[in-house]
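WARN retry 2 of 3 for item q-0093 after timeout on previous attempt; input resubmitted unchanged.
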Amino acid sequence: MKVLLIARRSTEHAPQDFAPFLNKEAKQALEFLEDDFFREIYSMADGGGAVILVEANSLEEAQNKASNLPLVQAGMLHIEYIPLKAYRAFKQAADLLN
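OK item q-0093 returned
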């Protein structure tokens, strides 16, 4: 299942508070990419966080894995989880081809 993660940086922390965690956060993100958990990742243009498309067996698995991110563990990154499914028009289009 695909899950969209909207990961927002805490506004209660100063930019310098994030610095000690950034290398570990980047390393974990690369490991998640190599493991095919993170499928796509984009930084928000305003620097306020990231939008991540993940592949997991369940919403709970996505939540459990993402909770291992160092900034999440430090309480500096808050994630909204949005389960996704195929766009319904794809089925209608496929039916038209039959």
